[in-house]
Amino acid sequence: MGQLSMYWIFTRKAFLRSSVYRFEVWSRTGSNLIFLLMWGSIWTALYAGREEAGGVTFTAMLTYIVASQFLDGVNEAGTPLWEIQEKVRTGDISLELMRPFDVPLRYLFADFGSVAFYMITALLPLYILIFLFLNLALPTDWITWVYFILAAFLGFLIRYCIEMTFGLLTFFLVETGGIEDIFYFAMSLLSGSVIPLWFFPAWLETIAVYLPFQSIFFLPLSIFIGEIKGAEILTSFGIQIFWLVVCFLVLRFVWNKASHKVVVQGG
Amino acid sequence: MSIIEVNGLQKEFLIAKRETGFMGALRSLVKREFIKKEAVKDISFTIEKGEMVGYIGPNGAGKSTTIKMLTGILVPSAGNVLVNGIIPYENRQENAKNIGVVFGQRTQLWWDLPTIESFELLKAIYRVPDQRYKENMDIFKEILGLDEFLNTPVRQLSLGQRMRADIGASLLHDPPILFLDEPTIGLDVVAKEKMRTFIQEINRERNVTVILTTHDMEDIEKLCKRMVLIDHGQKVYDGEILAVKERFGKMRTLVVDLEEAQKPLYVSGGEICKQEGNRRWIRFNRDEISASELITQISQTHNITDLTVEEPDIESIISRIYQEGFTEPQFV
Fold first, then answer.
1. How far apart are alpha carbons B244 and A2 in whole angstroms?
2. To probe the interface with B, which of A3, A89, A94, A97 has the most B CB atoms within 10 Å?
3. Does the beta carbon of B12 lie under 8 angstroms from any beta carbon of chain A?
4. Helix (H) or strand (E) holding A45
5. Is residue B317 part of a domain?
6. Positions in chain B whose pLDDT score sits under 70
């Protein structure tokens, strides 16, 4: 437990640190809103006045996109991929190796702080307003909200493991542009963040279903709009936990490899 | 047991060879060639508790690589390292509690937060008890003058302030060993002097073992009794600074300005090592010939308009060792 209290201080300090960058909060919120507007308009146009498509009502679809943008905001408040790569490249992360803490865990707890700050100051006030004033199909029973929050949290952890792993690959590669492309492609398309998996062509849906990315957006969002319900929710959690374990093990593996092979630039 | 034991230490890096041209780029896509670079070839030394040792060498000699292996962030290719009884790279987190590290070139403080926040963070990381934290902070405030900028964000500190904060931060958890990598780089004379006084005090009062890497020979002269000199990844000298000064300090340089510079000058007992216009630099060994004898000798053939005798400082001694090696005869 003493361990945990040590990591919590990273959360606290990261929270404080975020408050230094107030402009970043505004600009990030601005761009989040613009994307919300864009995807909202695109889906409105795609439905073209129809009540439903693919068995999903327009209202549900709109709810999906709004909640997705909310999750996107949460996930993007953590340490971004390029920053991890930068820390690897400059050797900053290697220097952290001489501290008595676990580096990936320390970044996770720091991310909690940044996310908390962004949520309290921008995301929650904004999305509460949106949820109140837009005509959305919000969950009516509290237990669905709880399931959604739980699933979203699991998704956040999975995303963290994947993003950190991708960032740590910088240790082994000279160029990392390709890694970034794969990551952002997977995060935007395969995760179902902008197009739900049920609209995918069958072959692509099959691929997406067997990958971890759907756990980050698609599963929590489907729970939120009631597309996944009843016993399916348990299966959905099962899938998420399975991927969390896998992604966590992969992260530990890559981290162990990386920290053993540390090549400090300019050594 | 010595507090630091380094035995037959080696570290080689593989550096990707960059191919030139379009075909080269294509080739490197499929097959990448590596060049082996031996940063540390074979280094051994031991350091006793409470010692203050200067670890010096020219750029690229392998200083930082050695330090990184001692801190556990680099794994040696061969050889053994023992720091306070721990193998650093196998037990990094344990080792971390025993060492304090200051890199002059980069800070370990949180860039965008007030300085005090970094100290609080480190207090939590190293689990420094409240009482000890307070005592240490009081000392640092007093000697390092941290008070004046504890609430300023690190990014707004001057270099001198930042270094003071950094060295305080590295000592917060009372490590028995302190690694200082160019702790005075970029500081002005006054700030350098303050820094040295503080290091001395810490060494004396807390018996902290200090390993100091620097290019500033004054740091070494003022702080260390012993120095380990390395070049091209190998140890060139390990011993007292005084001994080096004794041995090489006998060398003097007589600088004379001559009237008839075109007339050839021959001196016995000394060596003309440099000439420029009317000026000649003559190196000689104090034990073999005195300056006045040399001057008498020269004045028989030439008119001397001006003269000075230069004593070597440690810096020029060391640069000579780099150029000529330690064991080679020092004088012809």
1. 51
2. A97
3. no
4. helix A22-47
5. no
6. 18-19, 25, 28-29, 325-332
